[in-house]
Structure formats: structure tokens, C-alpha cells
Amino acid sequence: MLIRAPYGYIRGADGNLIIDEEARPNVELIFQLCIEGNGPRKISRILAEKKIPSPATLEFQRTGHTKRYHPDTPFYWPSATIACMLKQDTYLGQTTNFKTFKPSYKSKRMIKNPPEKQVTFENTHPAVIDRDTWDMAQKELSQRHRPTRTGEMALFSGLVYCADCGSKMYHRRSAGWTYEQECYTCPATQNRIKCTAHYIRVVVLEQLVLQNLQRVMAYVKDDEDEFVRRVMQNKLSAQMAEQEQAKRQLEKQLRRIAELDSIIQRLYEDHVTGKLTEERFTKLSRGYEQEQADLKSSVESLRELVSTMETEEVNIQSFLKIVRKYTEPTELTPLLLHEFVEKIVVHAPDRSNGRRVQQIDVHYNFIGEIDLSPEYIKTNT
């Protein structure tokens, strides 16, 4: 028995998946809405407003099957259906097997397999969604978004971070506030992490990010070769600095592991000669052995990190592909923001010259941060 084809596909005479051209635009729309920062519930409302038939309605129209069809709500898309579609890697043109398993033949419960135990076969059928769109959608899904009281999603939701403590900054608004008063604040002053109390107004952030994006796009279009060279140089420098730091930490931990071997050996010798009681020996050796086990685990993680950095490449062509889609933007839309920006780092304001001057760092998808001139990234807010 053939498994039902995912929405956006139909099965051909040979049982293989082929693209359903009628449903394909709707799949593309769902992924695009996700990239713009809309969650499954908001996407469901948008599809209903556009009067797009649900998968069950489309099946009824084609086959007459009424099992999942609800005539009173032909345009209702369950948010769970949309969430499932956004995680369905079938749209990449690949097939993943062994996603779930049963703990025993007596059990009816299915358990999700970890990614390393799943097997993926690429190019098994035509793709509906390209890899870049898929990756951006997965990034959006992985970030926590908190809608406002009106049910709308804040433009920078999940993207703004504090430069000092690394905490995600929260959108603040009140019923009596105008849009010009809304801001993002660092929450770390309210918990155990010590950080300076600072904020940035949404309108200022919007202006700064748009200006940054305009400059980057103009840079690409004026001299693409020079832009590519600079991005590669910046990325290489950042990778080398991170790699050196990781290597130093790795060497330090390896030395400590060797020291602990010597300490544990001396403890054992003292215990044998009677210098340490059984209770004291057990307590000390247990503590050192636990420290050594933790260090060995950390060493493995650091080795993987160093290895990853050595083989990591900058996917600059994916960034250039997005740039070529746009002329110079005059406003910061959710689509534009989420297609380009990975995260925004906000620094505490500098009041040393009697004015409130604040800096932001914009990190772009695929290429990271582009270091622009100080007179541009610093502004009086």
C-alpha cells in the first residue's frame, strides 16, 4: 500500500512523487510566510483570508472523499498541518527513512529516531522548495517568537541580542504607547546575570538596520568582486581568532587532564601506604575523577569545534543570490529582514560626549557581520 503523497505532490502511475502544480504555489507561499516571521497559526489565518482550499478540501474536490473534509470550513488549515509541512524535508526532493521506530513488536507507540540514526536519500523526486528557502524557514522555526497582545508578531522578534551579556532582548510595548515608544530591552538586569540596563527604540533599530542593509546591497552592486574578497577576508579572520581561542582552551584542558592523572596516582599511593584513610581517599578521588571525566567530554566538544572551523566555508553565493532579487529597498519589510538578517547585536549606549550614541552590529545570513565605517554604525539616538 502506497503512503499518501504529501500536499504539493501526487503519485504518478509508477508510484513515484511528481509535483502537483495546482498545490505547488501554496506550499511556496507557506514557506515564504514562515520566512517573513509568521507562525503556523498566523499562516493558517492568512490562507483562510486568501480562500485557499485546505488539503482535505482539495482531496474532496478531486476524489469525493469526505473523511477529512469539513464543508462548513473549506479554507481552514489546522496549524498542526502547517507546522508539519514546514518540517517535511520531502519538499527538498529527498526521502528520509527510519524517522521513527517501535521499542518492541508488542508496542504500538512510535518513538522519534535521533537524526544520526535516520537515513536520507537525495534527489529521489523533484523539489518544490530550494535549500536556501528551507534553511531560512528552519531558522525561523527554531527561534522563539512572542506575539504582541494584538496577535501580531514584532518585526525583530527573535533577532535582537545584547552585546554585553548575549541575552535575547525583549520587545516592550504598552496599550498607551505609540509605535515610536516601543523598544527592545536587555532582560539580564532582572535575573542573576549582571548587565547594564539599556534599550533601543524600535523605530531607531528599524532605521539603523535598513541603512546598514542599503549600504551592503549598494556595496555588492557597485563592486561585487571586492565585496566577495572582503567577506572572505573578514570570515577567515574571525574563524582564525575563534579557532586559536578554542585550541588554547583545548591545550589547557589536556594539560589539566594530565595533572589529574598524576594527582590520582599520588592519592592511590598515599592510600596504599596508609597516609590517607579510606573515606578521605574515596572522597578526593571521586572529585578528581569527576573533574577529569567532565574535561574529557569538553575536550571532545572542542576537538569537534576546531575540526568544524577548519572545514567551514562561506556560502557567499547564496547571499548574492538574495541581493540580486532586490533593487535598493526603501522600507524594512518582514520578508526583507528575515531573508537577509541572521541576528542583530545591540550595544549599550555611549554617553561620554554628552550625547546618547548607540551601536548595532548586523549579522547577515550566510556571511556574518560586515564591518562598516564607525560613522555609519554609530548614531545619535
The main β sheet shows up as: 5 strands, mixed
Structural class call reads alpha+beta
End-to-end C-alpha gap: 64 Å
| Secondary-structure element pattern, one letter each | EEHHHHEEEEHEEEEHHHHHEEEHE
Judging from the principal axes of the Cα atoms, what is the shape?
Answer: globular
Helix content: 40-55%
* Average of pLDDT: 83
Number of distinct helices: 11
The share of residues in extended strands comes to: 5-15%
Note poorly predicted spans.
373-381
Alpha carbon gyration radius: 27 Å
Count of distinct strands:
14
Question: Could you walk me through the main structural features you see in this protein, from its secondary elements to its overall organization?
Answer:
- The chain is 46% helix and 12% strand.
- With 381 residues, it is an alpha+beta fold.
- Strands 7, 11, 12, 13 and 14 form a five-stranded mixed sheet that branches. A three-stranded antiparallel sheet has the order 8-9-10. Strands 1-2 form a two-stranded antiparallel sheet.
